[in-house]
Amino acid sequence: MYRQHFGLVEHPFSLTPDTQFFFNSQSHREVLSTLLLALRHSEGFIKIVGEVGTGKTLLSRKLLASLGDNFLTAYIPNPYLTPEELKWFLAEEIGIAYSPEMPSYQLLREINQRLVDLAQQKKQVVLIVDEAQAMPRETIEALRLLTNLETEKNKLLQVVLIGQPELDDLLNRPDLRQLKQRIVFSEYLQGIPRRSLADYISYRLSSAGYRGANLFSRGALGLLYRATGGVPRLINVISHKAMLAAYGEKSEKVTRNHMARAIADTKESKSVGRLLAKRNIWLWPGVALVAAVSAIVLPNLLGVNL
Questions:
Q1: Would you say 57 and 21 are in contact if contact means Cβ atoms under 8 Å apart?
Q2: 297 exposure class (CB count in 10 Å sphere: 0-12, 13-18, 19+)
Q3: Which of 126, 200, 216, 251 has the most CB atoms around its CB within 10 Å?
Q4: CA 164 distance to own-chain centroid
């Protein structure tokens, strides 16, 4: 579509969690640093909470890419697992040959022995659970029991729980207080602050191959923030539509008007942003029309020859 028009190599606002587009904002940088520090010190449970669209999955991909060769990682994108399926998943990830017919106690013993072997090889095993707020209560409890596996000095399995704010509600249940007490680090992922929005847009564009001047006008950025509140996924969706609108007019710049049309077409945008976008769409053409009519009528009324 617009890649050639704007001199891009790839789409800058794709929703695919590509680590090439990981923006090092203060919140994301601090959370990633906490994760790396905690894992390198062999802490047990770590919890990361963020609203929908704040970049949790991209953060987890960045974490996986940042861990060294001494880590063996397992990533669970879909937490809808039974306790047995969780053990099978972990067994497979750490290289255990198993069959579904294997008794649970035997599988647990095999997992324990394999984790001990890996620890002796100086390998740390990390299990990352995305969308953890959706994990069944019984499976969460099974996860806690797996973290009981330890040597005299270290945990054999480290767990990172990543989820939406509902994860806190889940962990506040009285019957999960044992797991909650084991969470060593908790971090909250924030959106992109207003002052960093221009840098975020610029970073995504340059990562996609753009080498020109500022592509988004100041007015477009201001409207974009009001419509998204700094939520990265919404920023990406609306920015993509705004670039399409600019491309449709063969414009070299994304203006406030392009942004307004993109926001009006995105029902997930925030109400204040949609209100401002509608005002922009209806007000400015009206102002332009009044100005054009005035330019024709007023000189005649005043008896001025143009």
A1: no
A2: exposed
A3: 216
A4: 11
Q: At residue 150, what is the residue type?
A: E
Query: Among 66-70, 197-201, 270-274, 277-281, where is mean pLDDT lowest?
Result: 277-281
User: CB of 69 within 8 A of CB of 52?
Assistant: no
- Closest to 162 measured CA to CA, from 81, 70, 61: 61
3 state DSSP class of 212: coil
Ramachandran bin of 186, using left for φ above 0, alpha for ψ from -120 to 50, beta for the remaining angles: beta
Q: Of 29-43, 191-205, 236-250, 288-302, where does mean pLDDT reach its minimum?
A: 288-302
DSSP 67: S
Percentage of residues of the chain with pLDDT beyond 90: 70
Yes or no: say if 273 and 227 are a contact pair by the CB < 8 Å rule.
yes
Sign of CA dihedral 232, 236, 239, 241: negative
Confidence of residue 170 (pLDDT cuts 50, 70, 90): very high
How many Cβ atoms are within 10 Å of 256's Cβ, its own excluded?
21
* Phi and psi at residue 107, to the nearest 5°: -60, -40
Closest CA to 60 of 73, 43, 42, 79: 73
Q: Report the Cα 209 to chain-centroid distance in Å.
A: 22
Say what the pTM is.
0.84
Residue with the two structure tokens 């029309």: 289
Backbone angles phi, psi at 94, to 5 degrees: -100, 10
Cα 171–chain centre separation: 22
pLDDT in tens, 226-285: 999 999 999 999 999 999 999 999 999 999 999 999 999 999 999 888 888 888 876 655
